[in-house]
Amino acid sequence: MTREQKLHRWAQRELTLHLNDLILDDWQGGILAFGRYEIQSGDQEFVVTRDRETLARFTTRRVALSWCVADNKRIWDLRQRIEMLDQRRRRLNQDIDARKRAQSRASDWFRRSLAQDKLQNRHYQLANTNFELEKCLARAKYLQLRGSQNETARTRTA
């Protein structure tokens, strides 16, 4: 057995042992996370599947991966909050686009001003939603990087 074959067998053995802890880029352009979640890009969204069953749809790859981290770590409130904030961000973006089109079609000054006020409120809501979502994504990233070790636990000295 050559050195390359030994290395190949060792890599296969190690990968299968640690597959549940890894996040791998798929050869089809997606992500395989923790050996069970597949993240594929669709038309303007990222679809998370497990065993060929669609679990959720997200606007960005980072949000989808953070959702998988929260689900894998069984932190249900973080998982649900990420999904809810991403859906709210998608709805607000769609609403902003619709209001911009309505504002451009407005015939008089009063209607344009009213549409601008509503648009300004939606922009504020979107900024707030993005801020909350970034906090959730940072928490998921921290949980993934921390792993199973609790670095804040104090060691006992006897």
How would you sum up this structure, described in words?
This protein is α+β, with helices and mostly antiparallel strands. The chain is 61% helix and 14% strand. The protein has 4 helices and 5 strands, in the order αβββββααα. It has a 5-stranded antiparallel sheet. Helix 2 (61-72) runs antiparallel to helix 3. It is elongated and about 80 Å long.
Summarize the structure.
The chain has 158 residues and is α+β, with helices and mostly antiparallel strands.
What is the topology?
Elements (H helix, E strand, L loop, with lengths): L2 H16 L4 E3 L5 E3 L3 E5 L4 E5 L2 E6 L2 H12 L3 H30 L3 H38 L12
Antiparallel strand pairs: 1-2, 2-3, 3-4, 4-5
Helix pairs in contact: 2-3, 2-4, 3-4
Largest sheet: 5 strands, antiparallel
Count the helices. How many? 4
Outline type: elongated
The span between the termini is 51 Å
Alpha carbon gyration radius: 22 Å
Secondary-structure element pattern, one letter each: HEEEEEHHH
What helical percentage do the residues reach?
Answer: 55-70%
Total number of beta strands = 5
Order of strands side by side in the largest beta sheet? 1-2-3-4-5
Q: Average pLDDT across residues?
A: 83
Strand content: 5-15%
Structural class computed from helices and strand pairing: alpha+beta
Low-confidence stretches: none
Give short descriptive properties of this protein:
158 residues; alpha+beta; 5-stranded antiparallel beta sheet; 14% strand; elongated
